[in-house]
Amino acid sequence: MKTIAIVNGVNLGELGLREVDVYGHTNFHTYLDLLKQSFPDVKLLYFQSNKVEELVDFMLQNKNCDGIILNPGAFTHTSAILADTVATLSAKVIEVHISNLFGRENFRKNSLIASKCCGSISGFGLAGYEMALFYLTR
Questions:
Q1: Residue 23 annotated in active site
Q2: Active site residue 46
Q3: Tens digit of each residue's pLDDT, the chain (138 residues)
Q4: Sign of CA dihedral 37, 40, 42, 43
Q5: Residue 67 burial (CB count, 10 A)
Q6: Which one of the listed residues 23, 31, 46, 135 is annotated catalytic?
Q7: How far is Cα 16 from Cα 54, in angstroms, rounded to an integer?
Q8: Do 94 and 88 contact (CB within 8 A), yes or no?
Q9: Using CA atoms, how far apart are residues 138 and 135, in angstroms rounded to an integer?
């Protein structure tokens, strides 16, 4: 059984409540239950924090899992610390964003993390996590 960690950053604990026109009406725990049903042979770990240090600690504690799906939220554009951490991991990391970063404000078009990941998925809503899981479990 593969173990995949899903790591969500700043403000993603508010999914379903904030900017529903951008992020939708579904909270992540409801979506996580659907992912677990769709991938019953995968152990899914989940962690969300609004603090970079906590995200770093979680990823380092789980660096030997089979893959990490990382949605850093706005830390994507600001956190060299998070990028450096991703670069140290042995696990494959896929950067996922619910919204299309390239269709939003200019500052969102720059990811400090993307070059450290094996791939990036942006703009497909919550389905981006499922796409990343398909890749990591193939």
A1: yes
A2: no
A3: 999 999 999 888 777 777 677 676 788 999 999 999 999 999 999 999 999 999 999 999 999 999 999 999 988 877 899 999 999 999 999 999 998 877 666 766 678 899 999 999 999 999 999 999 999 999
A4: positive
A5: 22
A6: 23
A7: 23
A8: no
A9: 6
69, 134 Cβ separation under 8 angstroms: no
Out of 31, 97, 129, 135, which one is annotated catalytic?
Answer: 97
Q: Across the beta sheet with 2-8, what order do the strands follow?
A: 42-48, 2-8, 67-71, 93-97, 119-122
Measured torsion, CA atoms of residues 41, 47, 48, 50, in degrees rounded to the nearest 10: -150
Q: What is the residue whose two structure tokens read 């790591």?
A: 7
Q: How far apart are CA 53 and CA 44, in angstroms?
A: 21
Radius of gyration of the chain (CA): 14
* pTM, rounded to two decimals: 0.92
